[in-house]
Amino acid sequence: MSSRISQIASQLDPRSWSGKSLASHKVKHDDDVVIVATARTPFCKARKGGLKDTKFDLLCMQMFKSLLARSEIDPTLIQDVVVGNVHNDDSEYYIRAASLAAGIPNTSPTLLVNRFCSSGLMAIRTVANQIQAGEIDCGLAIGAESMTNHAGRPYSFSQELNAASQEAQDCSMPMGWTSENVAGQFNISRQKMDEYAARSHNRAAAAQAAGKFDAEIVPITVPDGQGGHKLVSADDGIRPSTSAQDLAKIRAAFPQWAPSHTTGGNASQITDGAAGVILMRRSLANKLGKKPIAKYVSCAVSGLEPRIMGIGPALAIPKLLEQTGVKKEEVDLFEINEAFASMYVYCVEKLGLDPEKVNVNGGACALGHPLGATGARLVVTILKELERRNQHVAVVSMCIGT
Fold first, then answer.
1. Cα torsion angle, 68, 72, 78, 83, sign
2. Quick check: is 117 catalytic?
3. What digits encode the pLDDT tens for the residues 45-98?
4. Residue 112 vs residues 67, 171, 372: alpha-carbon distances, Å
5. Is 150 a catalytic residue?
6. Could you tell me which CATH class the domain 29-149+168-402 is placed in?
7. Which of 117, 138, 299, 365 is catalytic?
8. How do residues 333-351 score in pLDDT, each as one tens digit?
């Protein structure tokens, strides 16, 4: 490696940043990675909601077109298109076709990333990393998932893997099992899980009624299942009248696994949806006269035992704060995906977070969790809320299957 490349690599490695602090990250540099456009579709119940007749490729095309419209930039500026998706079949083909159909030129390649529930966030991270590395100046990142169209194929590991490692065997277990493991191992009560889930619905209902989601949602025209089309403009999974007392009446979703605290009411909904951002180098944004919405700073990922994968944010968030030199008290807002209330309760309490700073407009218990889309949706949602509050520092995190 030449000395010049070594110097650049050192500058890009967060571990080598000198004087790491929030103040240092607030300084504006031409090479900063900035977000210039954000958008999401409505999040709708899989198999029965507003997007149930919308195929994955159409969902992606609509998201691409919406971001281009909001950014008002020339599509030829997009140097890479990165999509987070988890389980839609042959999605590599569909995202390329959707990109071209949306008017993005064939000189802009596409890339699929899959890190389960963080795939949308990993799409953003991938584009940001390319800009930080000097490889591109502008890219489009989305997360999208049509859970209505999941094939639901069974899978199993080779006998050699299972014989070699209990943790390898654990990777084949359903996510509901991991939720019960968290509840049991860390003494998370059913009552507390229901209370957190009810708060999610109550906050989301209040945000929807106040029109807060209107700023982040782009209404999209989709098939209506009867040969025509319809406009979908709002999330349809929120239950405004939800209470912890009502949730307590719902039977356990996984009675085969103790303590059987997880239910259809205190876990994320199965949902269709997409969300995304356009990122570029600050110098390009300045040249184009685009006012940055936010600056991307850094990302941290942590591994842990698959059987309790839900507590991941409690490991990744401290790692990120250490990496950037930002203090927990300096963070204005947190978004932690509510995959299951058990993990959400654990992470908020373990990290000692102020509940009034976490998921202030509700989360996946109310809005749903389209696997590949959620990471991007959290970014879109939290940036809009920062803007409303005239605040500046946000952290997004989620647990990841296995």
1. negative
2. yes
3. 999 999 999 999 999 999 999 999 999 999 999 999 999 999 999 999 999 999
4. 18, 22, 10
5. no
6. alpha beta
7. 117
8. 999 999 999 999 999 999 9
